[in-house]
Amino acid sequence: MSKRKAIVHVRLKPGVLDPQGGTIERALNKLGYHDFSDVRSGKFFEIVLADDSDAAMTKLDEICRDLLANPVIEDYTIETVAE
Amino acid sequence: MKFGVVVFPGSNCDYDAYLAIRDHLNEPVEYLWHDRSDLQGCDAIILPGGFSYGDYLRVGAIASHAPIMDAVKEHVAVGGLVVGICNGFQVLCEARLLPGALIRNQSLRFSCRDVYLRVETAATAFSSACQPGEVLKIPINHGEGNFTAAPEVLDELESTGRVVFRYCDRNGAVSEVTNPNGSRRSIAGIVNERGNVLGMMPHPERAVDPLLGGTDGMKLFESMRQAMNAVQGMAVS
Fold it and tell me: Is-catalytic flag, B34?
């Protein structure tokens, strides 16, 4: 089976204050970009998997909950692509 | 009675905590390296401030998985006392030993100054040496001390008397102005359901000597000593 690459996005849950996103938004406004709003910052991880079997995907989900994201304040999404 | 101060790579208030116990509380204390898997017979554990593992990923996230944390969790499960100060509070939240999370200060600024804390309850092992409503002066030193949790979690903390310290002014009045980091409901310190784990952003170990600007921090360590003496007294009688 060919290797797969997981792409994990971690973002703050809606409603959790994102001062970093807010600062970026203010910077955009100062630069004259006024039609762009609600900037939210997040994190992005690439992880190579031996395969994308159900077992591997279950483990990856566990990794997201245990370490990559803090479910108290963050949501995550996983997608896989060919390595 | 022996205190243990956990040392993670990047801890930087470990020595302050160690000296507070050794020279000011005058009790035995030792360091516990993060890679160890036992607590060396320590009766109370301090997770100190600092920037464990460089704050990589999220503050406290990597430290919450260090080998020593399995032993800390076992200690908590049998009712042992644990206090997490600043980064230690962040570690306790990441380890799910306390609810909620600490996110970046609302101001985006690192804040290092004295603040006032109102003691919301003296009925804990960490505040029994205080009077309810008493105001303590203790410094903060953090960039990510903004306590957040779901509204229902905050309500439960309040209704069960688990908010121990709240940011306030010198007279004990709580307002937005006295909140240094944007914490929900001005919360500065909480305990777990059982009451044997406390997390707080301010640094009591830096307020243990008049030379440092005050000794209010000693009340926390005195409270812990009283709690442990009471338990030992019960075991003897």
Answer: no
Residue type, B101: A
Going from N- to C-terminal start, the domains of chain B cover 3-236
Q: Is B114 exposed, middle or buried (0-12, 13-18, 19+ CB in 10 A)?
A: middle
Taking CB atoms and an 8 Å limit, are B103 and A67 in contact across chains?
no
CATH class of this structure's domain B3-236: alpha beta
Tens digit of pLDDT for each residue in B124-158?
Answer: 999 999 999 999 999 999 999 999 999 999 999 99
Q: Go through chain B and tell me how many residues it has.
A: 237
Superfamily of domain A4-82: Phosphoribosylformylglycinamidine synthase subunit PurS (3.30.1280.10)
Catalytic site residue B24?
no
* Distance of residue B222 Cα from the nearest chain A Cα, in angstroms: 33
